[in-house]
Amino acid sequence: MEFSIAQLIESRKSEQYPLHLKYINAPLARVQSIIGFDKPYVRGEGAYLWDADGNRYLDLLTGHSTFNLGRNHPVIRQVMHEMLDLDRPNLVKMDCPLLAGLLAERLAQKMPADLEAVFFGNSGADAIDTALKFARAATRRPRILYLDHAFHGLTLGTLPINGGAVFRDGFGPLMPGCEPLEMNDLKTLERELSKGDVAAFVVEPIQGKGVYIPQDGYLPEAQRLCNKYGTLLIADEVQVGMGRTGRFLSCEHWELKPDIVTLAKSLSGGYIPVSATITNRRIHDKTFSRLDRCQVHSTTFGQNDMAMAAGLATLYVMDEEKLVERAATMGDMLIKGLSDLKKRHALIQDVRGKGLMIGIEFSPQGSLGLKAAWTAAETAQKGLFAQLVVMALMRDHRILTQVGGPGVNIIKLLPPLIIGEQEVDLIISAFDKVLAEAAHVSGRVWSLSGQLIKQALSQ
Ligand SMILES: Cc1ncc(COP(=O)(O)O)c(C=O)c1O
């Protein structure tokens, strides 16, 4: 009997939404159709997606920063084919696989100072769970500090350090001893650290939810305080690492030397789930402290050959195509272009970012009618204006973007690092047109508001 995945896709292609409504996350499927994101994509290449009718979409979501190399990069694809043809003895388990060693070696070369001991997992949350366990084992302390607005994953181990109530609510009681701090508040940080019972301070050097960037002196001083009081600094680079911000790690912007770094998402070029928790030998050895504890932390698919090969190929492509430098150059160009729009569009309150991690924040500026429409939209749903812009960018310009967090009027852009001037121009021109329309309450952007509320209510 022959099984062809291509034939299966072809024969069932009209059923993706009904299948999700019946068997997977029905509310998520409904939201996608309400906001006009229910496109029947059939192909992805580079920075673009195509639907069944041949329409092309510019992808500024990149699977939440999983496709930094663009989709279906030919080098990673060729390596995947090569791996399948090699019939490797994958996941022997009582074994030390070569490819994991090679990828660990390459990652260690890219890390600050002495970070050279690597644990491979399967997801960002998995990497953070690992970092928290390592920190507890190394310090024998119970507490964890994190920042307001933080996002480190949605497992039960990462929820207690999630800065968004909407994610935590309904899943308690959560692990005790985890406390939020405000970004840039060094006084409270020192007060908490000085109690001497904090295992780790976990930070995304640039926060994904809202694209919040700390003041320049904050992270270096936080690191100094962590060192002073024996607390480990964990840099969560799951979204902002891998070149996204114009440095391989975003913490390089402040020359930080964290004790633990986490990577995931784009590490395999988007082909295979993978994560890495990278620390120094001393910290690593506190978990794997004796021969009989050598498997005290582990996950079945960690170190799997396909992920390791994809990781090695990804780092090769990043170097060959100078993607970190490209992210810095294209990011500067895009941030400048969007900032220039601020002069013409009062609705833009702020454009911020580093490299190709960019946030555009809106506020109600303009006519009285516009302010009233904004207030009505906010009353119906917080962050609704940003959602309307996201919908208009999709409907009128076939550009995929996202609202930058729950209930905020911020749009986050995460373009693939391969974009060029053509894409930068496209993005700026699309924002220009959508915001020009959004300044008129009777225009096409605000008409989406009524539609959205009606459809949400009818569902
Ligand atoms: C900064 C950060 N950490 C951790 C995670 C969790 O990663 P995953 O969804 O792979 O578990 C995410 C996911 O978006 C993230 O942005």
Brief overview, please?
By secondary structure, this protein is of the alpha/beta class. Helix content is 43%, strand content 15%. The two termini are 43 Å apart.
Strand runs, count:
15
Regions with little confidence, pLDDT below 50 for 5+ residues: none
Helix/strand structural class: alpha/beta
Q: Summarize the main sheet.
A: 7 strands, mixed
Describe this structure in words.
The structure is a single chain. The protein is α/β, with parallel strands linked by helices and 459 residues long. The protein is 43% helix and 15% strand. The chain contains 17 helices and 15 strands. The protein has helices at residues 5-11, 16-23, 26-34, 62-65, 74-86, 98-110, 124-139, 165-168, 186-193, 218-229, 281-287, 305-320, 323-344, 368-380, 384-397, 421-438, 444-458, and strands at 41-45, 48-51, 56-59, 117-121, 143-147, 178-181, 198-203, 232-236, 260-263, 275-279, 348-354, 357-362, 399-400, 402-403, 410-413. Strands 4-10-9-8-7-5-6 form a seven-stranded mixed sheet, with helices on both faces. Strand 5 (143-147), helix 8 and strand 6 (178-181) form a beta-alpha-beta unit. Helix 2 packs across helix 3, helix 5 packs antiparallel against helix 12 (305-320) and helix 9 packs parallel to helix 10. The longest helix is centred in the C-terminal third of the chain and has 22 residues, at 323-344. It is globular, with a radius of gyration of 23 Å. The protein binds pyridoxal-5'-phosphate (PLP). Pyridoxal-5'-phosphate binds next to helix 7. Pyridoxal-5'-phosphate (PLP) binds at residues 64, 123-125, 128, 151-153, 204, 208, 236, 238-239, 264.
